[in-house]
Amino acid sequence: MKEIKNIIALLVVAATISCNQNNKPKEPVKPTIDSTVVFLLQSGSLDKTVSLPGELLAQEKVQVFGKVSGYIKKIYVDIGSQVKQGQVIAILEAPELQSRIAESKQKLESAKARLITSNDLYKRLLEASKTDGVIAPADLEKAKNQVSSDEALIRAAQSGVNAEGETAGYLTLKSPFSGTVIKRNVDAGAYVGKPGETPLFEIEDNATLRLHIAIPEALTGTKVKEGKVQFTLKAIPGKKFEGNLSRKSGSLDPNSRSEVWEFAVNNSDHLLKSGMFADCKLNILREGKSFFVPYSAVVTTLEKKFVIRSENNISKWVDVSQGVGLPDKTEIFGNLKEGDTLVLKANEELKADTKLVIKISK
């Protein structure tokens, strides 16, 4: 019985102590201030290899049509034929054209005969007019004018002969440059020269090919290291080819926002074909220094892009534009200088003119 009373007494004492502890005032919790991780802006040189698609095109390409109407008399080439500049590739015949040429020559001969007659008459009248009263002045003037008229007729007839001769020259089709015949759409005996017809031949000069690469707008302000490009082709795996920068279009395509850069590719062995698509690698450089920051430091909104700079531990939004992107950082341009303190992980929630507790990133 005595042990039970002792236990009860201990419980009462414990309860009293617990109540006293609960009634003690709690100490206020001090608020914690989060630090903002920042880094120091440093400049660097842009030196990056980019991969872009390209297309091989012929140095020159032409479609050969029949200038005059006629029939194919003879064909001297076929697809794959190598031709030289000025080489005859086909001959046409046009009987009606030959008739016009013969007619124009006859008109010229007739005009020459009339000139001989009128000139002879004028000379005889001129000689007779030396005797007073024998030849009327009007008759002499008329004979002289007839000579001038016949001379004009000869010049006109000669022009007609020359024109028909030039037209006859179109009956012989020649290659305008050295190259390869890639299409032949006609056979001997076919009638050609109709409006809207298919070209008779297509010829390409592919000894040197043009490699066209569409350069994105962000890269148009850069230059290619040593002006060279390396590329590979699915059709020829395991082999690398090279080209030299020859020209730039100087204008952006409004649809793709890109500028075409053209590279000259030697193809003297005719291994490459025009129309092939290439996987191109360009080592691009930018003159002068650029600023590169982690992607997390750039905030992109619907209105603008900006970074957050710490000025005397006060946040400031600085508008920027992005340039070339690297695997872990991006090039930026704006009102910045080397050594600026920028927030590493910026966001819209960090408003401008906010007091910062900064922590330099290691």
Topology:
Blueprint: H1 2-22, E1 36-40, E2 43-44, E3 47-64, E4 70-75, E5 82-83, E6 88-93, H2 95-128, H3 137-169, E7 172-174, E8 179-184, E9 191-192, E10 201-216, E11 223-224, E12 228-233, E13 236-248, E14 258-266, E15 277-285, E16 290-294, E17 299-300, E18 305-311, E19 314-325, E20 329-334, E21 341-343, E22 358-360
Parallel strand pairs: 1-22
Antiparallel strand pairs: 1-21, 2-16, 3-10, 3-15, 4-6, 4-9, 5-8, 6-7, 8-10, 10-14, 11-15, 12-13, 12-15, 13-14, 16-20, 17-18, 18-19, 19-20
Helix pairs in contact: 2-3
Task: Explain what you see.
The chain is of the alpha+beta class and 362 residues long. It has three domains: 38-46 and 289-360, conserved putative lor/sdh protein from methanococcus maripaludis s2 fold (Beta Barrel), CATH 2.40.420.20; 52-59 and 204-285, Efflux pump adaptor protein, beta barrel domain (Elongation Factor Tu (Ef-tu), domain 3), CATH 2.40.30; 67-174, Orthogonal Bundle (Helix Hairpins), CATH 1.10.287. It contains three helices and 22 strands. The protein has helices spanning 2-22, 95-128, 137-169, and strands spanning 36-40, 43-44, 47-64, 70-75, 82-83, 88-93, 172-174, 179-184, 191-192, 201-216, 223-224, 228-233, 236-248, 258-266, 277-285, 290-294, 299-300, 305-311, 314-325, 329-334, 341-343, 358-360. The strands form four sheets. Strands 2-16-20-19-18-17 form a six-stranded antiparallel sheet, with no helix packed on it. A six-stranded antiparallel barrel has the order 3-10-14-13-12-15. The longest helix is centred in the N-terminal third of the chain and has 34 residues, at 95-128. The two termini are 72 Å apart. The mean pLDDT is 86.
